[in-house]
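Q: How do we represent a protein-ligand complex in a form that can be generated token by token?
A: Start from the inputs.
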Amino acid sequence: MVTFWGGKRKTLVTAQLHYLFMSSTWILPDDLAVPDFPADHPGPGAPVPQHWSKCFGCGDDQPTGLGMEFTTGEGLEVIGRFEVAKRYQGGPGFIHGGILMTAFDEAQGMACNAALRSAVVTAHLGIDFARPIPLGAVLELRSRVEGTVRRKVYTRSEARIVDGPLADPDVVVGSSYGLFIVVGHEHFEKGKDFVDGMPTGDQDISAV
Ligand SMILES: CCCCC/C=C\C/C=C\C/C=C\C/C=C\CCCC(=O)SCCNC(=O)CCNC(=O)[C@H](O)C(C)(C)COP(=O)(O)OP(=O)(O)OC[C@H]1O[C@@H](n2cnc3c(N)ncnc32)[C@H](O)[C@@H]1OP(=O)(O)O
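Then emit the structure tokens for the protein with 3IX bound:
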């Protein structure tokens, strides 16, 4: 077992390193509050809209991006999918680790947004790479909010290959834990001189 301090704010992270199982454990705070289930939640299987069209993770107007598509899962879970394109190659034949991390970032951010209906940004993200993921694989990421403390949102996610090469829905090929922070519109105001495109959308949070 390895214990270390992660992030500039010293989030305590304990990683139990095993070779057979996904095993990192992120110690959650004792005062974690579980968010209420939104009254207008559509139930499992409903599409979750992109949060804005130019997003590298989910945007449909971002040709080099991941193009992740999301649906609601059971409870507060969201399910994201994308195919590992050839341009995401790291080692020969396999996904670049940073691409998988990007996908986890997006998926956990979407889980926050679906559960809390608030804009969030990533403060800290941890990842376990459990299996090599081949080009052409279709990855499914299941993500959820574990709880909140003030503006801090604690999230978790697992990835599986559900179609294409090495598909096995019973095998977790990677997992992630993350800390997101709820922010207001003023956070994105700081980017208005650099923004590429004009964020619009029917979600209030998309009109950055
Ligand atoms: C840029 C892309 C995002 C575009 C989003 C567009 C629309 C958003 C709409 C909805 C979102 C929907 C889906 C999202 C989908 C994808 C997500 C992608 C998200 C990203 O990819 S986003 C890019 C990377 N991300 C950043 O660019 C953040 C840079 N950063 C900052 O902007 C500040 O750093 C900030 C705002 C994080 C905090 O600053 P702040 O001044 O507001 O608040 P403060 O410092 O007081 O922290 C409050 C409490 O969090 C604790 N805390 C803070 N940081 C911590 C850390 N690292 N470890 C442990 N604890 C930490 C403190 O200790 C305190 O805790 P306590 O309450 O206990 O005192």
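Residues 1-21, 202-208 have pLDDT under 50 and may be disordered. The beta strands are 2-6, 11-15, 24-26, 47-48, 69-72, 78-83, 120-129, 138-149, 152-163, 172-182.
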